[in-house]
Structures are given as C-alpha cells and as structure tokens.
Amino acid sequence: MEMHEGHIAIDAPEGVASWDIDPYDAALLADPAPYYAELRAKGPFVYLTRYRMLVCGRYAETREVFGDHDRFVSSRGVGLQDFLYGEPWRSPSIVLEADPPYHTRTRRVITRALSPRAVAAMKDLFRAEAGALVDRLLAHGPFEAVSACAEAFPATVFPKAVGLRESDTRRLVDYGAMVFNALGPDNALRSRAMARAGDIVPWINAACARENLVAGGFGAALHAAAEDEEITPQEAGMLVRSLLSAGVDTTVSALGNALWCLATNPGAMAALAADPGLARPCFEEVLRVTSPVHSFCRTAGVDTEVGGVAIRAGTKILCCLGAANLDETHWEAASEFRIARRPMGHLAFGVGIHNCVGQTLARAEGEALLTALAERVARIEITAPPVWRPNNAIRALDRMGLRFVPK
Ligand code: HEM
C-alpha cells in the first residue's frame, strides 16, 4: 500500500476524470466559483492527480458521502491525513473526528449543552450587543468590517455564552483558523497557521479547564455532565475545546460573508432594511452562497459505490460543500444571492449525524446582527475593496472597508 499526503494513495477509478488542479491553491481559494463549476461539470467525482484522492462537488453525491457515516467515516480525520496511519497534530476531536457508538455518547452531551433552550436564554444579550455595535459603527464613519464587525460581535457574545473567565479575541479567531488550515496539505497556509501553535494551544487548553469557566455558560454545562459521570472530566474539557475550535472562526467568517453579500447586493440590503423579518432567511442564503466551511473530507470505510463510481475502502474524499451549495441542477439561479430564498437542505452546516451541533447558536448570532442592521441601516457603501483570507477549509474575508448609511 502506497501513502501520499498522509493517506492511502489511490489510482483513478474507472470512468472518473483526472484533474491536475490544486484545490488548496491560495488564488483558487480566494475566488473558488470557477473551480466549483468545473468540478461539477467533470462528473460526480474527480480524481486529483496531485493528492491521489477523490473530490466531489455535485449536490447529490456530496450529500450522500458527507451524510453517510456508516460507509464514510470521520474517525480517520476530516482532513487529508488518515489518522489510521499517522498521529494528528493534536488529539482528535471526540465528536467531529469520532464515529458511533462513541460519537453518539459525546454528541448527546454537547447537543444538550447547546440546546435551542440554552441558546434562547442568550437571545436578549445577543440583540442588545448587536444593536450597540451597529450604533457605534454608524457613528464611526468608514470602518474595517472584518475586525470592527464580523470579529467584534462574536468576540463580545461567544466568550460570555461559553462562560470563559478570560477572553482573547485574537487567539480565539486564530485557533479556529489553525484547526481548519490543519485539515489541508502541508502548504504555506498550514505552516504559517501552525507557527502560532506554541502561543495559542496552551492558552486554549487552559481555557477549557473547569476552573476557568463561569457558571451559567455552555462550558460549565459540559463539565456538569462529568459531575454526573456521563462523561469523564477529561472528555468534558475536550468538548469545551470543540466549542472553541469550531465556534469562533466559522461564525466570524459567516458574519463577514453576510456583510459582503449585503454590500455587493444593494437590492438585498434594501429589502432587509424594509423588512427586518428577512434577517433569518438572509443569513441562511449567505451560508448557501458563501459556505464558510468550504470543504471537509471523509474516508471510505468499506468498498462501495456512489453515483455509479466504485470507491475502494481507505479512499479519502474531499467533499466540496461550497460547490454543492452552488449546484445549478439543484438550486434555481444558484449563483444569485436571493435574500428570501429559504434554501432548505443547504450543506453549509453539513448533513447527517455530524451536522453542526452549534447551528442554533450560529443562527442566533447571525439573526441578531442582521436584525440590528435591518433596523438601523438603510444602505452599505464599500470604502475599500474586499480581500479574501484563504484557508484550507474556511471561506472568509480578510478585510473590507464599509460605511453604514443610517435609516
Ligand atoms: C460540525 C459548519 C458554527 C460546533 C459542523 C459541520 C459543519 C459546520 C459543515 C459538519 C462537519 C462534518 O460533518 O464533518 C459550521 C458553520 C458555522 C458553525 C458554517 C457558522 C456559521 C458552529 C458553532 C459551534 C460549532 C457556533 C459551537 C459553538 C460544531 C461541532 C461540530 C460541528 C462541535 C461537530 C459535530 C459532530 O461531529 O457531531 N459545523 N459550524 N459550529 N460544528 Fe459547526
């Protein structure tokens, strides 16, 4: 058996086109739509010659592979590396990178901690903080939207929701970026992000400890499950780590992408300002059009077949959620941002047993910020062009200058 990029090297299955493209190329990641379109056009699966693995980007097959935990496992890692054959850079997540029956146990605990009821209790806080932030930005004149809004809002509410005794926005955002870049190959994006591990990882690990989490937050709720002996104290810390890994950079990206969608679609912004009730569907459409988690892997656990293609056990498959969410055979006028579309079944939060356990929280944050905008802002002007921040798994802006024009 031959290894390549940390996983089993396969040859192209019969009938599958080979493609010498690098889906982790920084220029491609900054403008992925042409790659997504070509990927879908080439077939249900494409063989990546330089990674010796498969990639899929059509809606039907991406959904089938990503959502079928029986045939396509997560315990071998959701990035390029196959954990069966090498040590990952950190101990694997006990929820994201786990299969049933273990996943069922840890997922139950984290689902309860992040329940709709627990999130609903925080909605007033989210609304108040979002309103105050948008008021400050309206008074400010032009501002840099990623740091002053997309990061600033989760940086205020997320540490409170988790109950972090001490917060550090830079480390929280950069830890997420590191975790997601680590899912790709050993390219410049990954090594640049990993260079900061020595500073960030000890801070994150300390933040997960019981004594650093105040009562009333999600973190304390996870540790309470350890007191009830449902999980061990070590597992409780690992579940807090999951919140800090997956709960900040993703939301920051989604909110930045929302500002980009509204700034570049003035008609949608006008519709939102006219009807704040559109905040919820608007956030959903942002997720579909921009897919903040653009791609994650699965590993075939068995010999199987999808879309008429034979897949051998051990094959790594890059599931391109961003491409599936723009598949024109599934979505009408797929590339258009339609604020009232209500895109049921989009894959931005995944599908199946691993679907995003933080989606109620993410939606509550998105809805709070977009409602605050809708109530106060008539128009958004771009004062400095958007620049994307390539990441091996995340689609996010690096910076963009904006001015909010009041109602
Ligand atoms: C899982 C996206 C926000 C925690 C996932 C998955 C996706 C995703 C695509 C599926 C991964 C897979 O199947 O391999 C997003 C997006 C977000 C977001 C786009 C923001 C808009 C959050 C938040 C939290 C969170 C706020 C927690 C505070 C998790 C966890 C998992 C997960 C723990 C693993 C669940 C499992 O494996 O059972 N997310 N997420 N996410 N998400 Fe999110």
Automatic annotation (TrEMBL):
<keyword id="KW-0349">Heme</keyword>
<dbReference type="InterPro" id="IPR002397">
    <property type="entry name" value="Cyt_P450_B"/>
</dbReference>
<protein>
    <submittedName>
        <fullName>Probable cytochrome P450</fullName>
    </submittedName>
</protein>
<dbReference type="GO" id="GO:0005506">
    <property type="term" value="F:iron ion binding"/>
</dbReference>
<comment type="similarity">
    <text>Belongs to the cytochrome P450 family.</text>
</comment>
<dbReference type="InterPro" id="IPR017972">
    <property type="entry name" value="Cyt_P450_CS"/>
</dbReference>
<dbReference type="InterPro" id="IPR001128">
    <property type="entry name" value="Cyt_P450"/>
</dbReference>
<dbReference type="GO" id="GO:0016705">
    <property type="term" value="F:oxidoreductase activity, acting on paired donors, with incorporation or reduction of molecular oxygen"/>
</dbReference>
<keyword id="KW-0560">Oxidoreductase</keyword>
<dbReference type="Pfam" id="PF00067">
    <property type="entry name" value="p450"/>
</dbReference>
<keyword id="KW-0408">Iron</keyword>
<dbReference type="GO" id="GO:0020037">
    <property type="term" value="F:heme binding"/>
</dbReference>
<keyword id="KW-0479">Metal-binding</keyword>
<dbReference type="InterPro" id="IPR036396">
    <property type="entry name" value="Cyt_P450_sf"/>
</dbReference>
<keyword id="KW-0503">Monooxygenase</keyword>
<dbReference type="GO" id="GO:0004497">
    <property type="term" value="F:monooxygenase activity"/>
</dbReference>
